[in-house]
Design a protein that fits this description.
Number of helices: 16
Strand order of the largest sheet: 1-3-2-6-8-7-14-15-11-9-10
Protein name: Amidase
Shape: globular
Distance between the termini: 16 Å
Organism: Oceanobacillus piezotolerans
GO molecular function, one term: catalytic activity
CATH superfamily: Amidase signature (AS) domain
Structural class: alpha/beta
Number of domains: 1
CATH topology: Amidase signature (AS) enzymes
Family: Belongs to the amidase family.
Strand content: 15-25%
Number of strands: 15
InterPro entries: Amidase (IPR000120), Amidase_CS (IPR020556), Amidase_dom (IPR023631), AS_sf (IPR036928)
């Protein structure tokens, strides 16, 4: 029974908890047992809060018994990426330098989740400082993909992706600067949403690139993501980039109806040099939406030719500013890959940064024009499949190509412009899941989620789960 419970989604568990058919304590114990059982294989958790989680689950059970049910996530066990601040809790940032760091306050999203009755089960592993995309951490060990333990789960939110996929966390939160929610979502066969920039506060989340950082849900289903977004969205005076918006009910926008939805497809960039099996899965999925009444329009995005360069310029410049003192005083305490990345941040000049801003402006303009004629843009999430842990090259239709620039090639441009972007599973490539990426205009998060739900209803993974 316990193993069956941890495979359920929040949308399945919530009514059972509300109606007292499942106890939050029973659920918490099952998830914690699953986390401890699988962590030897996936290394998804850095720390597990067993005693505290059980205590809070008992509190949630009592609240619900007394008629004080707080909503969909009340009593739901959840691990959180370890670059999110917890007051008086060790928050390592996946690093050596901050291995003993204990924040004096909670991140805004932690406050919101706690108020919603979430049961925190621990902190999840990640790429050091969230600064790359494999979750191969030199200090806390590599996170392993639950579908194939020799392969990367993607990153930097690799612990979140792996934990949700195996039921070691019912849902989770990731951070995304160049694809760090969507990449592990695609690699691990789950749902990952990068919301519109400014919709979710980043206060209390250790920064990587303040112009590109996002925080969002990583879940088993699209409705789980919508419900989680309703909790964490909202204006935050402590976050300068937070936008004032009327609160939305994202769940109400999920109908699965895509009749007359206009899908934009950019062949020049988003379907160029794609693994042939990934491309087939994505194109076949688009056709299923057409079969449901959607339409496809080919679009062109001229500024995409400079998007990779601009995204790299923002990331290395801003990350190097964040870590400026540490890279000067303690360079040996960074992992080799991160040390090289941060040192390279000294290279972009002020003119190059200004040129990147111009690219961002042109890219924003191009997307605004596109979204006058199409409702969503659809592409693969990843152009290549996950590589073996430790490999810096990856196969692309028989050719060995560098992993890093290819893993972020289809995700990073959408961080530059801050649009809502969702990855959902859309099929298989051998024994590994494939993700499809759906992007909409700013604050059309509900539309993006609904499109993802129409795909999810097709059950393209066939109900398969990792066999750990």
């Amino acid at each position: 029974m316990a193993n069956e419970i941890v495979t359920k989604s929040v949308e399945e568990l919530a009514p059972l908890i509300k109606n007292k058919e499942i106890s939050p304590v029973e659920l918490a114990e099952a998830v914690l047992n699953r986390a401890e059982e699988t962590n030897e294989k996936t290394n998804a958790y850095i720390s597990i809060y067993r005693d505290e989680a059980i205590e809070n689950a008992k509190k949630a059970e009592e609240e619900i018994r007394n008629g004080n049910y707080l909503g969909m996530y009340h009593g739901i066990p959840m691990g959180i990426k370890d670059n999110v601040f917890f007051k008086d809790k060790l928050t390592t940032l996946g690093s050596k330098i901050h291995k003993d760091y204990v924040p004096s306050y909670d991140a805004t999203i932690v406050e919101k989740l706690r108020d919603a009755g979430v049961i925190f089960t621990g902190k999840l592993n990640l790429h050091e400082y969230a600064l790359s995309i494999t979750s191969d951490n030199p200090y806390y060990g590599a996170v392993r993909n639950p579908w194939d333990l020799e392969k990367t789960p993607g990153g930097s939110s690799g612990g979140s992706g792996a934990a949700v996929a195996v039921g070691a966390s019912i849902a989770s939160i990731g951070t995304d600067t160049a694809g760090s929610i969507r990449i592990p979502a695609a690699a691990c066969g789950i749902v990952g949403l990068k919301p519109t920039r400014g919709l979710v506060s980043t206060h209390g989340v250790f920064p990587l690139s303040w112009t590109q950082d996002h925080v969002g849900p990583m879940t088993k289903t699209v409705k789980d993501a919508a419900g989680l977004l309703e909790i964490i969205a909202g204006h935050d005076q402590k976050n300068a980039g937070s936008m004032e918006r009327t609160p939305e009910n994202f769940l109400d926008q999920i109908t699965g109806d895509v009749k007359d939805l206009v899908i934009g497809v950019d062949e020049e960039y988003f379907f160029n040099n794609i693994d042939s099996n990934i491309e087939k899965s994505v194109r076949d999925t688009i056709q299923t939406l057409v079969d449901q009444g959607a339409k496809v329009e080919t679009v062109e995005i001229p500024a995409m030719k400079d998007a990779d360069w601009a995204g790299f310029t923002f990331s290395v410049s801003e990350a190097s500013a964040v870590h400026y003192r540490s890279i000067i005083e303690r360079p040996e305490d960074f992992g080799e890959d991160i040390r090289g990345f941060l040192v390279s941040g000294a290279f972009p000049s002020s003119k190059q940064y200004a040129d990147a801003v111009k690219v961002k402006e042109q890219l924003t303009q191009d997307f605004n024009e596109i979204f006058k004629n199409v409702d969503v843009l659809i592409s693969p999430t990843l152009p290549v499949m996950p590589n073996k842990i430790g490999d810096e090259m990856v196969d692309l239709n028989g050719e060995q190509v560098p992993l890093l620039p290819n893993f972020i090639r289809l995700t990073n441009p959408l961080n530059i412009i801050g649009t809502p972007t969702l990855s959902v599973p859309c099929g298989w490539n051998g024994n590994m899941p494939v993700g499809i990426q759906i992007t909409g205009p700013a604050f059309a998060d509900g539309r993006v989620l609904n499109t993802g739900y129409a795909i999810e209803k097709l059950n393209l993974l066939g109900g398969k789960r990792p066999s750990l």
